[in-house]
Amino acid sequence: MPFTRIATVRSKGHGLGLSIVRRIVEKHDGRVGITSHPGQGATFWFELPVEAPKGSLLPISA
Q1: Which pLDDT tens digit goes with each residue over 14-61?
Q2: Cα(22)–Cα(20) distance, integer angstroms
C-alpha cells in the first residue's frame, strides 16, 4: 500500500518514517503494529524473527 498522509496539519518531516519501517520489517518476515487510545497517545511496535546462533545452548522464547 503506498503512503498517503492523512492529517493536513503542517509538521516537520515528510511522514514517511513508519511506511519505511514497515517495508524493512516486512522484508525480514516481521510485523509492525500500533496500539492507540484516544487522548492517551499511541504505541508503535515491531517484531522480528530471531534465530539462535548455531551451537547455542540458550533457548530463545517467542
Answers
A1: 667 888 889 999 998 899 999 998 899 889 999 998 876 676 666 666
A2: 5
**Rounded Cα gap, residues 23 and 20, in angstroms:** 5
Cβ atoms of 47 and 31 within 8 Å: the answer is yes
Distance of alpha carbon 31 from alpha carbon 17, whole angstroms: 15
Confidence of residue 6 (pLDDT cuts 50, 70, 90): low
- Cβ–Cβ under 8 Å, residues 19 and 5: no
Q: How far apart are CA 29 and CA 16, in angstroms?
A: 20
Q: Which amino acid is at 48?
A: L
